[in-house]
Specification:
The protein is mainly alpha-helical. The protein has helices spanning 98-116, 132-141, 144-174, 193-202, 205-208, 211-226, 229-249, 252-278, 288-348, 361-455; strands spanning 2-5, 13-15, 22-24, 57-58, 61-65.
Length: 473
């Protein structure tokens, strides 16, 4: 079996992840192998000059061979053919067994409670004289229901984190496997992809069931069928998202415990305060003994209340640090797997530019996908443009309607003013005509009266003789 090791581990004694045998990493390690044809070196590593390529290696460390000759090693099964491949049963890489976690937590809880039981202080000993163990025991035994629930939740959560840590160690051990040997080919194409998949099936059963090996196996099997690097890249990205959500979901129960522990502590505080207030009895203030007893009950209840809060906050604080540390370690491990797939696996895949062995199916698929993507983008832009045009048309209709409404309003107002002005003018003319007619009627009446008076009188008209041109006068 071939393993990988970081350069800084040269000369150190380690244990083989496959057979658990101690072995020494060679003191001299070779440089990184040359990159695939036409591709840059992963992670910006310089290309080796004047050195032959090592038997195996990549951007994540130098590889060397380790034989499985010890009795503890498991014999490798012969690789299955393409028709017989069915993968292997994948176990959850991050979620431990719930019943096992509860069993471990409950056993630790019983052991802790049993250890503290002998250290309970006698009732006559005041709390100021408690020893350290007596004080710790008093924290757990004052509020038995609340303290025991908090302790059980704490041990249950710690057992979950412990089993998750074991799974993380298993995932890190699998990172040392040589999953893509360079001696099998600098690039992975349709001719040798089956050999790489068969190599994965030869890995130890204990280590091949890991996120690293499973993801690479699925990628190579997809590449063997479709011969398309784009599909493999999309699948790796989707699998990374699935693993990330799986890791995030594995902390749901632990986060619930982290939330419930201090909350139970506050509940214990409320219970203690209620007992303290209920123990107040100052009915006879002259009886000093009764007052002293009442104050002792009150202070005892307050002490019990604050002890419950103290226990909950301490347990929550202790639980918070390992939980966040383990979460970061799992995220780092997932990022390492993503980096290996992006920097080592994908650059070595060669699908012939979409044509594998003269078969145009890959090219047609690529063209169809390109046309479909272009059409999708065109339809998206067209929909956006149509939406904008529709919005502009709606705005234009609204503006036209508002303008028409304004014109109608102004026209109606002007027409009303013209009608009022005409009405007023007609009224003024009628009034003037009426006044003039009245005046004319009055004048005619006066003339009639005058003529009537003149009708009864005789009027003598004298004719004056006109003088001539040559008369004397």
């Amino acid at each position: 079996m071939q393993l990988k090791a970081e350069p800084e581990m040269a000369g150190k004694i380690v244990r083989c992840p496959g057979c658990n045998t101690k072995l020494s990493i060679p003191a001299s390690v070779a440089g990184a192998p040359p990159p695939p044809s036409g591709l840059p070196a992963p992670s910006g590593l310089p290309e080796p000059s004047g050195l032959p390529p090592p038997p195996a290696g990549d951007a994540f460390g130098t590889e060397y061979e380790h034989g499985e000759s010890t009795p503890q090693s498991q014999p490798a099964a012969p690789p299955p053919t393409q028709g017989e491949r069915g993968g292997w049963e994948e176990k959850d890489p991050t979620n431990p067994n719930a019943f096992l976690c509860f069993g471990i937590g409950f056993v630790i809880f019983l052991a802790w409670v049993g250890i503290l039981y002998p250290f309970q202080a006698p009732p006559e000993v005041p709390s100021a004289k408690f020893t350290t163990m007596q004080f710790v025991a008093s924290l757990f035994y004052k509020h038995m229901a609340v303290s025991f629930c908090n302790t059980l939740f704490f041990t249950w959560a710690m057992s979950i984190l412990y089993l998750k840590l074991q799974k993380l160690r298993h995932q890190r051990q699998a990172l040392m496997l040589d999953v893509l040997p360079w001696e099998m080919g600098a690039e992975i194409n349709r001719d040798n992809v089956g050999a790489f998949i068969d190599h994965l099936y030869k890995l130890p059963r204990r280590l091949r069931d890991s996120m690293m090996v499973n993801r690479i196996r699925k990628a190579l099997e997809l590449f063997e069928v479709k011969q398309n690097v784009g599909d493999v890249s999309h699948m790796l990205s989707s699998q990374s998202d699935i693993d990330g959500m799986r890791i995030t979901g594995s902390y749901t129960l632990t986060k619930a415990f982290l939330w419930a522990i201090p909350l139970l502590g506050f509940i214990g505080t409320v219970i203690g305060l209620s007992h303290a207030i209920g123990g107040m009895n100052f009915s006879d203030m002259d009886d000093l003994k009764q007052v002293k007893t009442t104050l002792q009950n009150v202070t005892g209840g307050l002490g019990t209340a604050f002890d419950a809060t103290l226990l909950g906050l301490v347990l929550a604080t202790i639980l918070n640090f390992p939980m966040n540390s383990l979460s970061k370690a799992e995220d780092d491990n997932l990022n390492t797997i993503d980096s290996f797939c992006n920097e080592v696996l994908l650059p070595r895949l060669n699908d012939g530019g979409g044509i594998a062995g003269g078969d145009t199916n890959g090219l047609m698929d690529t063209l169809v996908k390109a046309v479909a993507n272009s059409q999708k983008e065109f339809l998206t832009d067209l929909n956006a443009l149509s939406k904008q045009v529709r919005e502009q048309a709606d705005n234009l209709d609204k503006r036209a309607a508002a303008h028409q409404e304004r014109v109608d309003g102004e026209f109606a107002a002007t027409l009303n003013r013209m009608r009022e002005d005409l009405t007023n003018a007609v009224k003024d003319s009628v009034k003037t005509t009426t006044d003039y007619t009245r005046s004319l009627a009055s004048g005619i009446q006066s003339l009639n009266n005058l003529l009537s008076e003149l009708g009864g009188k005789q009027v003598i008209i004298h004719q004056v003789k006109k003088k001539g041109w040559f008369s004397r006068d």
